[in-house]
Specification:
Blueprint: H1 4-26, H2 35-42, H3 44-54, H4 65-91, H5 97-120
Helix pairs in contact: 1-5, 2-4, 2-5, 3-4, 4-5
């Protein structure tokens, strides 16, 4: 069972991630890097929605595996897009290299915190 220290440390890392992404936009006066926050916040949703829509049955283990795989594919797409979008913006000359680096590191901290939170606080299923 995760305790108060886990919640405090996860919120600290999440705050650092948001700070890096916001600073990457504010310091260089180009707010395109804030799109990374949207991709990392939306990234876990397909996996969660498809996991609920699959409705696994107690008697049949393989029911709905295509739906779960589709959710994982969309989640992976959003995670890769969160890294590739700042790289694309840097390559096109819209943002600087420092803004790209801060945006990618901050985005990975945000997504890592979301994943860690779901791993620590998911409910145990009893059969």
């Amino acid at each position: 069972m995760a305790g108060l220290k886990t919640i405090i440390s996860l919120s600290f890392v999440l705050a650092i991630g948001f700070l890096l992404v916001i600073l990457s936009a504010a310091l260089f006066k180009n707010y395109l890097t804030l799109l990374v926050v949207a991709t990392y916040v939306v990234a876990p949703l397909p996996n969660w929605i498809c996991g609920r829509a699959a409705n696994p049955d107690d008697f049949m283990e393989s029911s709905g595996s295509g739906v779960i795989d589709f959710g994982r594919f969309l989640t992976g797409f959003f995670v890769v897009m969160g890294i590739a979008l700042p790289a694309l913006l840097y390559h096109s000359g819209d943002i600087t290299a420092a803004a790209m680096t801060m945006s990618v590191v901050g985005g990975l901290l945000i997504y890592g915190t979301i994943i860690t939170f779901t791993l620590f606080f998911q409910e145990e299923q009893e059969f």
